[in-house]
């Protein structure tokens, strides 16, 4: 910067220098072009008070825990290891023609007898036949010695064996009561995984072969408003929809799977054979995960009243209670296969809201009564997780006192060696298999329930809904009803355990037995449907020692309830409104069974609440090292982690030091020295304490005191007329801005600035003596003054 000559008044004006202009303070970073980013501090919001306990409830959203949602279910069908010769056409004109005949028998080739019947598909059987032909060196297969013989029943023979109402001839005019006996106006929801593109063609072939009434295919658009419109009372309709895990419909077609396609074929065909006028809605889940299959059940619930048939299963677990609410929709009946691997309990059959269908081996000659024994592959057993439902009581013959849920509830033919015809399409060819498995038994029981509902509708009664109460209390607990409505299966076993054998009355392989349909339907159609037992939702409850625990039981019931606890720890109680209280919890995990009894019906429901009480952690005080200066007030906030409010105390603290209730350590006039102060934080609720050590060092400052600015201005001398130059040096350590003024400059003298140096320049000095008065002031008001004598002599 150049100051040009001007009037004396201008020369006496102050010269302002600022670090923000980068003129003088090069020693403090002046002239640096770097930028600093300023970040506004986050605003602090006041938090709401925290609850003193933690309650985790399995809410009735029918959502599986992550570990269970990914489990894969398996179809529960079996097929005898051979492709059957096509059935004859004797039933095509009259669907009852074969009713008085014996089952058709066909030998199993010895080499096929080693094939497992579990999930056996047409594709596997065809591949085995091709391999056999190639081994024989030709395209044809010569007959081989038979290992065993398979008996296969037609729909007419099954109806006769189980005393279902006889099938009217195809095309005959039906009365309203006849139509009801065929399930008219009812809906059966077949829930399965994956996709069967041939289901309509397979059902058509099945109907044509056995003279059954046809089913009209009817699309249900994904935009259809739910629930569905009422089913037809005069014709069967078949619809095929695809579900999402959330319980909606989608246009995305699931992938094909031969095993699941076979399951779908037999489910649809035998539900229709049992209830030929019922509407069938096939709901295909995208995959076999429990999460996807549960979504299909949710869709069935949304579609409206009906019967849900589930011919699949997965191992039970502690997740099962969390989704029981999915099987409790109004006017819905849920049925599931118990499995096909012998003794064992599977989901969804284990749910107390699901009718669990076991399996038998059937012998029927076409006349007289059928004979049955427990099928060795039938699932069934005692649950490891599900509490005893209210309907499984000692008044039921053979039941006794049971510890937990027993399955099966009922049975039907399931042995593939005494199997039933199923049409399965492979490519363009219809093949016939002898199917079995509890998955075959389940849709037939679903058909029976649909017929019962149709007959009930004829007399203005509501659907059965949950059928357990009717079957156990109104049928099995009444000796005359039990003997007429059920065939008590008392032979055979599904394992070697003490409870694995069929016996008089209830047993786990076959439940109450198989149906004598005419009598059972008469009882079911005339029965008054009792209010369902209370449904309680299991939950996991967490709390801490020293903090009172309280939670409310989740219960659904038609009438007021009375509650009781079993397995509860000392001090825990339940109020009349279902609120469980525990004022002084102790550490541990407790399985508490909550029972709720309907005050009007006397029915009870149970759920197990797992209560976990953790020992609370003691407060944690972070140790720290801090420094201060003598007589300079010191404040430090202690870092503490605690579940509850704490109180503080100090030990080893110097005189004058204190700590506030909020944990602020204060010392108004620190004294030179080193100190070790122990801070103790005590939990105000649990009484537990934690400590931390604050290492404190009070020392004199090592930073030299900041002095004011300094000016160095040596005297100048020169000769008149010859240019004169002189330097004024300024020092100002720690200053952020300076103000410099120079007075007394002779006319013609100018100044320039470089860093902290001001250069005086006089191009043509004039003889005389002069004095520059220099003054510097920093941002803190510290100042310095100096004079600079100038002597100019004559030439």
Tell me what the structure shows.
This protein is of the alpha+beta class and 795 residues long. Helix content is 16%, strand content 34%. Helix 9 packs across helix 12. 46% of the residues are buried. Residues 1-61 and 138-147 have low confidence and may be disordered.
List the helices and strands and how they pair.
Layout: H1 8-11, E1 15-17, E2 54-57, H2 66-69, E3 74-75, E4 78-79, E5 104-109, H3 122-136, E6 146-153, H4 155-161, H5 176-180, E7 187-193, H6 199-210, E8 215-217, E9 236-243, E10 249-250, H7 258-274, E11 279-285, H8 290-303, E12 306-310, E13 312-315, E14 332-337, E15 346-347, E16 354-363, E17 371-374, E18 381-387, E19 404-407, E20 410-413, E21 418-426, E22 429-436, H9 438-458, H10 468-476, H11 479-485, E23 486-487, E24 514-515, H12 517-526, E25 535-537, E26 539-544, E27 549-552, E28 554-556, E29 561-566, E30 573-574, E31 579-582, E32 588-598, E33 604-614, E34 620-621, E35 624-628, E36 634-637, E37 640-641, E38 646-651, E39 657-659, E40 664-667, E41 673-683, E42 689-698, E43 710-712, E44 716-719, E45 724-731, E46 738-743, E47 750-754, E48 757-762, E49 768-778, E50 783-793
Helix pairs in contact: 6-7, 7-9, 9-12
